[in-house]
Amino acid sequence: QVQLVQSGSELKKPGASVKVSCKASGYTFTSYAMNWVRQAPGQGLEWMGWINTNTGNPTYAQGFTGRFVFSLDTSVSTAYLQISSLKAEDTAVYYCARGSSNFDYWGQGTLVTVSS
Amino acid sequence: SSELTQDPAVSVALGQTVRITCQGDSLRSYYASWYQQKPGQAPVLVIYGKNNRPSGIPDRFSGSSSGNTASLTITGAQAEDEADYYCNSRDSSGNHLFGGGTKLTVL
């Protein structure tokens, strides 16, 4: 069965970096795009962008350029989200989600807390 | 505009029918998909395309679209349908965007 398993919660200080992983199983990793979605505490879903799992080419939504980097390791069917120069407002749950036209499978979410 | 607008909250009596709507210019060109999210859980896809349900989604969930408005209808709402519902579509650049979400209360 298809599964997306994300790495565990992170507590980081402002200015630090974090790397969230999303390991896929149960399907051919390079056959589906991978998206990243942010959900701040008590807020709605925000699409951050996606990465082409064939070419590794990322596309970032407005507001997610510069400090946010999507990457892959296809040898282990894993997508990564790295956020640098963390700010308090980056505190959120980050989800990976499979798909192009719609998102049919989601990871369980990774809570990133930024606090001094 | 590149926004999707949803009512913040909707309520429905147990067993009745409820429609949750999503408005946006992009819906004239792209179908919406709909996601259910319960507290502390990841979103779940419930409707995609013209009116398609993923495996395991009850047939009381249906979708429709007219002009700039997409709708998610739950016919015979159950207590377990109480959740936040988000629509998603694409903007003019082909990028995705989510609506602000609708909190459904089943009375």
Write the layout of secondary structure elements.
The complex is a heterodimer of chains A (116) and B (107).
Chain A: E1 3-6, E2 10-12, E3 18-25, E4 34-39, E5 46-51, E6 58-60, E7 68-73, E8 78-83, E9 92-98, E10 105-106, E11 110-114
Parallel strand pairs in A: 2-11
Antiparallel strand pairs in A: 1-3, 3-8, 4-5, 4-9, 5-6, 7-8, 9-10, 9-11
Chain B: E1 5-6, E2 9-12, E3 18-23, E4 33-37, E5 44-47, E6 61-66, E7 69-74, E8 83-90, E9 96-98, E10 102-106
Parallel strand pairs in B: 2-10
Antiparallel strand pairs in B: 1-3, 3-7, 4-5, 4-8, 6-7, 8-9, 8-10
Concise structural overview:
With 116 residues, chain A is an all-beta fold. Helix content of chain A is 0%, strand content 48%. In chain A, a hairpin with a 6-residue loop joins strand 5 and strand 6.
Count helical runs of chain A.
0
β-strand amount of chain B = over 45%
Name the average pLDDT of chain A. 97
Task: Please give the largest β-sheet of chain B.
Answer: 6 strands, mixed
* Class from secondary-structure proportions of chain A: mainly beta
Radius of gyration of chain B: 13 Å
Proportion of residues in extended strands of chain A: over 45%
How widely separated are the two ends of chain B? 35 Å
Separation of the first and last Cα atoms of chain A: 40 Å
How would a crystallographer describe the biggest sheet of chain A?
A: 7 strands, mixed
Derived from helix and strand composition plus strand pairing, the structural class of chain B reads mainly beta
Percent of residues of chain A in helical segments?
A: under 10%
Number of helices, where a helix is a run of at least 4 consecutive DSSP H or I residues of chain B: 0
SSE succession of chain B:
EEEEEEEEEE
How many beta strands in the DSSP annotation of chain B?
Answer: 10
Largest interface: A-B, 20 and 21 residues
- For the CA atoms, what is the radius of gyration of chain A? 13 Å
Would you identify the regions of chain A where 5 or more consecutive residues have pLDDT less than 50?
none
In the predicted model, the low-confidence regions of chain B spanning at least 5 consecutive residues are none
